[in-house]
Amino acid sequence: MSVLLNDDNGGPAFPTPAGIQHNDGMTLRDYFAAEAIKQVGWFNNFNKSAATAYAIADAMIKAREAKP
Fold it and tell me: What is residue 19's predicted lDDT score, i.e. its pLDDT?
């Protein structure tokens, strides 16, 4: 199953060329969240940490879609 580009996840983090069978794996949103947690760090509450990382990822995806 291929991950489609949409407002929720940013599409695949590491897309492959068209015509190649491949599992797209993590979404761009997941990748951004994983990178954000490295900078933000972990809070005492893991749910708060994850929510913060995904909020940053969502903001990054929204910024990518903004027209200059």
Answer: 64
